[in-house]
Amino acid sequence: MANGGGGGGGSSGGGGGGGGSSLRMSSNIHANHLSLDASSSSSSSSSSSSSSSSSSSSSSSVHEPKMDALIIPVTMEVPCDSRGQRMWWAFLASSMVTFFGGLFIILLWRTLKYLWTVCCHCGGKTKEAQKINNGSSQADGTLKPVDEKEEAVAAEVGWMTSVKDWAGVMISAQTLTGRVLVVLVFALSIGALVIYFIDSSNPIESCQNFYKDFTLQIDMAFNVFFLLYFGLRFIAANDKLWFWLEVNSVVDFFTVPPVFVSVYLNRSWLGLRFLRALRLIQFSEILQFLNILKTSNSIKLVNLLSIFISTWLTAAGFIHLVENSGDPWENFQNNQALTYWECVYLLMVTMSTVGYGDVYAKTTLGRLFMVFFILGGLAMFASYVPEIIELIGNRKKYGGSYSAVSGRKHIVVCGHITLESVSNFLKDFLHKDRDDVNVEIVFLHNISPNLELEALFKRHFTQVEFYQGSVLNPHDLARVKIESADACLILANKYCADPDAEDASNIMRVISIKNYHPKIRIITQMLQYHNKAHLLNIPSWNWKEGDDAICLAELKLGFIAQSCLAQGLSTMLANLFSMRSFIKIEEDTWQKYYLEGVSNEMYTEYLSSAFVGLSFPTVCELCFVKLKLLMIAIEYKSANRESRILINPGNHLKIQEGTLGFFIASDAKEVKRAFFYCKACHDDITDPKRIKKCGCKRRWEEHCSLWRLESKGNVRRLNYCRGQQTFSVKVKVAARSRYSKDPFVFKKETPNSRLVTEPVEDEQPSTLSPKKKQRNGGMRNSPNSSPKLMRHDPLLIPGNDQIDNMDSNVKKYDSTGMFHWCAPKEIEKVILTRSEAAMTVLSGHVVVCIFGDVSSALIGLRNLVMPLRASNFHYHELKHIVFVGSIEYLKREWETLHNFPKVSILPGTPLSRADLRAVNINLCDMCVILSANQNNIDDTSLQDKECILASLNIKSMQFDDSIGVLQANSQGFTPPGMDRSSPDNSPVHGMLRQPSITTGVNIPIITELVNDTNVQFLDQDDDDDPDTELYLTQPFACGTAFAVSVLDSLMSATYFNDNILTLIRTLVTGGATPELEALIAEENALRGGYSTPQTLANRDRCRVAQLALLDGPFADLGDGGCYGDLFCKALKTYNMLCFGIYRLRDAHLSTPSQCTKRYVITNPPYEFELVPTDLIFCLMQFDHNAGQSRASLSHSSHSSQSSSKKSSSVHSIPSTANRQNRPKSRESRDKQKYVQEERL
Where is the composition biased (Gly residues) (predicted)? Predict the structure, then answer.
């Protein structure tokens, strides 16, 4: 502070005492000094200099010890004015003279330049006129001096331009030097402001020695630098006048010259040095130069804060100056002692209009300034502060970075992040049956979660984190540590209106992630099957590294297609790969048995060494009987170490060491029994819970630890098993020595490991000798022999017989041999009218009711047809497919369907009963109801209106009994190896006849739903609550409803075990291979291929069927028998692997019921009691004999089907569940088949 009273009362200025000494006093010392000066001036305002000197001397002597102790010792060598004169006007005059003097010079220069330009312009016109009048005679003489003058001006302009450009580069941020200079100037300005804050605790004006004051020296150095920088800016400025008036220039005018005056006068004046705070306005520019601020919100926030703070500090500096100095016209008598920070406080309460009154302005200048500042400050406070708060509040709450935890993996989940998708994912991923899931889930989405989703994240805060960002931004990928993530999962919006656009978005996400880190494992959901091909174009997409695309349309329609072959299979498979908790029900209801099966899931585990050398059926039976586990497949490693998944491969295949098995069990702990089992220690144990790790097992683990550690990074135990690179060369050698002699060694398949076989030499006589004996057509009679091995295989007929059975001129299958194929047909050739459809007498067919129009999104009907045209069916076993729907929509789908045989179209609508009667819907094996218009409706409750109306329409239809009676499918199929023509071996003793279907309720229907809650409208006789989960509802349990939401569980199931997805694809797609997918991606159609031993061998793969117990070879077990006995008998005798039951809903009731609805029971226990009406889900081997009688026929055509049907009907295998409810005479069936063949 300044010595306010001393300036006008004759006392020592600035506290200078006798002898002219100069002190730097603190504010509290100066306050006491002010009181003495005020009393002296009030007693005698015109006292002499001697009395003033003595008064000042006495005052100094009082405070001299404190001043010495606190700040700077008094020195008598400071040459300062002893008369107490104030010199503030000298400091202010230096700034004003500099500013106005420079402004005057600039304006004078502009005026002179303007006058010179006007004069030159006039002279130039006169010279031009003279040139025109004088002609060209004087041109040579007059131009020479003009040219010389122009060259000199050009040289001068060039030099000035170069200097100007150099100065512009130096002060700009375009170069490294410019950025360093700009940042340095800003830093020094902040340093000068800090020095002002320090000096503000001293008097406003005081005597200082430049050579001994350290802060003054630093401030002088800073201002010299500012002066040089000002010169550069002046040179680089295009408009000098505007440069002179800009804020930074004004700051320099009022801060730089006073420093030089201070050195000259040995005097310091705080003055207008607070203007350095205005440099804070450039803070955002500096941060942008340093690449710290990148987003618009952050730049705007820093701009607002810097303007607000700089204005605040600058105004506080002015109030500090005038309040501590006083008004000049009051002879500086009305000053008050305020510190700078008190002024900062005063300005804040003034801007906020609070005004406590504890600190206020006393001087006229201060009050006048406050009047104007309130107007501007209040406006700024009212506009800036809310905007600042809004920007801070809108800053990403989830904008941090993920910190990886040592020893714990993490995955990144992105894509369609909503409450529904996240809750479904977490419910399955973190299910307790998965054992200990030591994986952290990191969600990345560009929209902040709503309150419900945020609450969900908080409930799982120990394993879930959310970050706001986009996977398309590499910075956000770095924030979630994508390079160290175990996998990245991309969720799709299943209910979007444009599936292709959604797939394109997910493909772009894959490209971005793979571009950032090519080695990351990605599992993505795709909506459309044809969009999977685009993933193959990504160079770093590699299925060997675990990359997978889960195509929802492919799997959804594949599940529905399998239900056409074995009704209820879609429900069973959906429950197997979904994690469901066990719900115990005491009452003896159908829900009790259904829920016991629902608690089963698919797991993987390595098989114990005790199983090495045993055949697959033997191990399967041992696991089921002793370990209470159901093994349905294994991962087989060939001699070249290629691994693939074999589903129920038969008894010709022996278990290798380290084989991975696929099990159906209720939790992961049960599956460990297969790994711990030891024949020496556990052979006599009857309770499977007692099977624990034994000493033998520990020794075996030590023995095989070497080859297990080779691929430690990719091995996942239990449900974590990856299984792609697990075993060592030891296994390879063992596999070659043990299996190279088998007659059917499964060869390498493409990435998805489909089942394929190739014939090789047979050199093991022990178990395979019967095969050689049966090769020339003998009847299979060994009950323990595999029907897969003991068959009449045309591929194994030696010599010309094999060639005769393969017509090389006919293409019956596609190029991979996995599907039936025919030449492309025009859609007009397969269109039926109502009368034509009625004359066809369709029976045992599949009716597909499709809702769609010319603008509907394609659902990919090819995925529905392909499983129904798998080559492991004989041609006469293929079910005719009739599409009922809009011809405009079906024309758009036809390009993908024109290569499949036995496909017809009835233009119409599924809501028309006339169309439904024309296709004999009461005689169909399955009616599928689909809609392509579901996602175009915003109201979720109305999305399924068409499918629900069609389903209710069919169920309400009534039919007469004019067609006659038909043998029901509950008579049971004849298992491979049993000859129905022989009375001794015939499984059926008397054909069961039942009346035909007379009501639509008994028609087998499967309806696709989008909204799970709409399932309540399908069955009017159920009591399902609207809030009941889909899998607990009666339509889903009965296999009559399917929703795409059940496929959400595949994401987590695939992450923990990528073989699960391969297994599911193998079961539901009919055997689609990556070669076929690449071909479809290339041509968008199946390509026909000639029959070769290699392609025909691909037909030899398992398929799902339903075994009836009402009659046939297992009829004795159907009435009160045990499921375990049936399981063992079917496995030993026919190599059929049973895995579930399709039972009538009211079969547990003691009184007969007319209800024909059935429900699914998955993996019942051994002692489960069977009833005669049960249908058994089983995996059956490919039956070569079913088509053997066709071997002598020409393969150039599929005509004359009725004769081949009669010769092979003894081995035909009905695959659906309700054929017992749809009787029809054999004659009418043969007639219908004949008419169909003629039409095709």
Answer: 1-21
pLDDT in tens, 356-401: 888 888 898 988 998 888 888 888 888 888 888 888 877 777 888 9
1136 sits in the region (left: phi over 0; alpha: psi -120 to 50; else beta) called beta
Cβ atoms 467, 402 nearer than 8 A: yes
The closest of 611, 585, 616, 612 to 598, measured between CA atoms, is 585
Q: How confident is the model at residue 129 (pLDDT cuts 50, 70, 90)?
A: low
List, in sequence order, every beta strand (DSSP E) within 228-374. 267-269
Mean pLDDT lowest among 170-184, 449-463, 815-829, 894-908: 170-184
CA distance 1225 to 968: 10
With b for 16 or more beta-carbon neighbours within 10 A and e for fewer, the 55-81 pattern comes to: bbeebbeebeeebeeeebebeeebebb
* CA 1187 centroid distance within chain: 48
1238 HSE (CA, 13 A, CB side) = 12
Residues facing 759 on adjacent strands: 744
> CATH second-level architecture of 409-541?
3-Layer(aba) Sandwich (3.40)
Spatial distance between the Cα atoms of 258 and 222, rounded to a whole number of angstroms: 13
- Which one of 62-71, 185-194, 359-368, 879-888 scores highest in mean pLDDT? 879-888
Q: Is 870 helix (H, G, I), strand (E, B) or coil?
A: strand
In this prediction, residue 653 carries a pLDDT of 86
- CA–CA gap between residue 1053 and residue 1059 (Å, rounded): 9
Q: Among 68-82, 254-268, 677-691, 1157-1171, which stretch is predicted with the lowest mean pLDDT?
A: 68-82
R_g of the chain computed on alpha carbons: 47
Domain ranges in the chain with CATH number 3.40.50.720? 409-541, 813-971+990-1046
Is the domain defined by 813-971+990-1046 classed in CATH 3.40.50.720?
yes
Per-residue pLDDT band for 987 (boundaries 50, 70, 90) equals very low
Which neighbouring-strand residues pair with 413? 443, 489
For 295-395, give the CATH class.
Answer: mainly alpha
